Amino acid sequence: MIQRRVVVVVYSGVQALDVTGPIEVFDTVNRRLAEQGVGYRIEYVSADAPLVRTSVGLVVQAARLDEAVGPIDTLLVPGGWGLREALRERELVSWIRDAAARSRRVASVCGGAFLLAEAGLLDGRRATTHWAYCEEFARRYPRVTVDSGPIFVWDGRYVTSAGVSTGIDMALALVEADHGAAVALDMARYLVLFFKRHGGQSQFSAVLEAQLADPLPIRAAQEWILGHLEQPLPVAELARRANMSPRNFARVFRREVGTTPGQYVERMRIARARELLESTELPISHVARRCGFPAVETFLRSFGRAMGLTPGEYRQRFQVLSPAGLIVAPGRDGFAEVGA
Length: 340
Prior knowledge:
Order of helices and strands: EHEEEEEHHEHEHEEEHHHHHHHHHHEE
Helix content: 40-55%
Strand content: 15-25%
């Protein structure tokens, strides 16, 4: 049986899902492809061996660092609440640097990118981490080009992913690189994942952004915007929904949201357009209309200005498939219908 060796670095306070999410993907390959004689051999190593407690109290049995010798296929470095202490462990950082040199590829989940950068492995490379830590990451490691947008970034043999669940998306991408798209989709289906997401997708969603403001009148206006993007959305109408004067509404909205109502509406329209381009085969003109752009030309200019790509280029690069290999099209009632 041909097995690729996956070595997972764990430490006290490591995030459990950063470890178990990707590993479940690799283990699912082992179980689903056992008869084909391929799979992954999973090992855990730690400076805190043999028993390492995760941030939620689960205990991982690991080998000592000096026991993990020889070639490695995939070195996986997760993040976690114990990361700051782990960064001070020079033995661990040095071991990661040396182990990376004998690994075919090196991957991190969430804050694990800090350990890779601390070891000097990401200098001159593009990388990501959880959006909440990107500013600190860039300040601490100025030689790394930090991209806070994507859910994971692949630069050479280094793959860095964003927060927690994106480690699953990254692991599926690694499986796809090893065994092909059909196998990766089968694993996603078996793990009951609705979408197999590409790395370039954003860490953010329009729905989450609509829930950011604390004052209820502003949040109500945001929710109205999100539910009526296909309609004209003048400030006067939004102010009426918030039971405020247009002038006061614009002032408070900018203070709470950090942008003008008009800019926010356009951002939400672009976000909705991205969702439709990623998950449907709707013609560009229909996407523009559903997102409230009065003309296709206006949509093309706005989308190009925001994304640096045409809608067609964006769709080609980031269109997502369901685990069954299907496109998801919005139904008439706004809910999704799965279809070819």
